[in-house]
Amino acid sequence: MIIPIRCFSCGKLIGDLYEPYIEMTVKKGIPSEDAFKKLNITRFCCKRMIVSHINLIDEILNFPRLQ
Amino acid sequence: MSIEIIEKDDRLYRFVLSTSIEMANAFRRIILIEVPVMAIDEVIMLRNDSPLYDEILTHRLAMIPIITDLKNYNFQQECSCGGAGCSLCSVTLTCDIKNDTGEIILVTSGDLISNDPKIVPVSPNIPIVKLEHGSSLTFEAFALLGRAKDHAKFQSVAAIGYKFYPKIKIDENKCKKCVQKCIASQYCPKNLFKVGTEVSSPKLIPDFWKYCDLCESCSRECPEGAINVEYDDNKFIFSIESDGVLPLDTIMKKGWEIFKEKIDDFKDQLEKLEIEII
Predict the structure, then answer these.
(1) ipTM for the complex?
(2) Nearest-CA neighbor of A50 among B154, B192, A9?
(3) Is B254 a member of any domain?
(4) Could you say which of A52, A66, B127, B212 is the most buried, measured as most Cβ atoms within 10 Å of its Cβ?
(5) Cβ–Cβ contacts within 10 Å for residue A2, how many?
(6) What CATH code is carried by the domain that includes residue B216?
């Protein structure tokens, strides 16, 4: 749905790192290995949180609840 | 017991702790579980038009790390208010947002308004939820002090762990039998051996112990069995990674304080028991 705030396994704060990661990799084309280094993500539990995430909330917002 | 600092950052701490393994593990567990930290514990949801349910939103709010002030706040159970909630034991964070921009907006932790300007979320960019046009989000949240043994949201560190201090011995007499360039040292995944061109015994770089993971690939690949990998029983390389809720120095000090209190408590309990020594 929306990026989890903490890593499920270790509890590191990763919620605020998803946007910068997408900015670096998708928009600027930086390899994800380098992007993780810049964002100080070292463990693979935190990396999978970001890599495997799909932002489904954008799809759901197309069907508003209020109308 | 002594501490020697290797690396000090505002979020990461690495040091060598010289003590027994029982003490080292107790220290690790106390920092992970006992150091008190603030987190949102109660939310009054007044209006929620977002795509997330109240419960999911509340859980997300609870996960936000909040900068903690240990000096001026008490545990709610031990507070003079008797657990009702007052300004000495809880912080109120409010959020009142109505989206009339005509676009989708992202509500972040920066939109939470705290009644104590020191007690705020660690980062203002943590996403909470997205709101469509015309919808609004209003709630009141209360942050309390708590311990991680009750809930993981009260964890003061993101990661804490230790590894053994490596001792690598190289037998030079066995190395003389080898006629070729040292193969075993090339297998080190962290390249901790000095690169030499001549046929001689391999040399380790001076601070190899900081990086060695005791994987033993060097000793396994040596045809003569000259490299022996061991570890020190009474020396541990700790690494602590913080969320930013508390400065790492405070976490360490508080950890030792709690450790001391626990040992004193244990002593008192032992003295109360009348044990007959045979």
Answers:
(1) 0.91
(2) A9
(3) no
(4) B212
(5) 22
(6) 3.30.1360.10
Which tokens sit at B158? 């993101």
Provide the domain count of chain A. Answer: 1
B131, B199: one domain = no
What is the residue range of B63's domain? 37-154
Look at residue B255 and tell me if it is in a domain: no
Distance from CA of A37 to the nearest CA of B (A): 15
Q: Does B197 score more than 60 pLDDT?
A: no
Interchain pair A43, B104: CB under 8 A: no
Q: Give yes or no for a contact between B84 and B175, defined as CB atoms under 8 angstroms apart.
A: no
Task: Give the model's confidence band at B182: pLDDT under 50 very low, under 70 low, under 90 confident, else very high.
Answer: confident
Same domain, B46 and B118: yes
Q: What are phi and psi of B43, to 5 degrees?
A: -130, 130
Measure the CA–CA gap between B143 and B67, rounded to whole angstroms.
Answer: 11
Rounded to the nearest angstrom, the minimum Cα separation between A31 and chain B is 22
Q: How many CB atoms lie within 10 A of CB B62?
A: 20
Note whether B191 and B231 are same-domain residues.
yes
Tokens of B50: 């977002």
B134 contact residues in A (CB cutoff 8 A): 64, 66
- Reported in sequence order, the residue ranges of chain B that DSSP labels E, i.e. its strands, are 2-8, 12-18, 37-48, 90-98, 105-108, 113-114, 127-131, 136-146, 157-170, 227-242
Looking up tokens 């900081």, which residue turns up? B210
**CATH number of the domain that B92 lies in?**
2.170.120.12
Same domain, B177 and B149: no
pLDDT band at B10, cuts 50/70/90? confident
Q: Which of A1, A12, A61 sits opposite B104 (nearest CB)?
A: A61
Instruction: Residue A60: list chain B partners with CB under 8 A.
Output: 51
Going by the DSSP 8-state scheme, the letter that residue B186 receives in this structure is: G
Q: With 70 as the cut, is the pLDDT of residue A66 above it?
A: no
Q: What is the pTM of this model?
A: 0.85
The Cα B52–Cα B63 span in angstroms is: 15
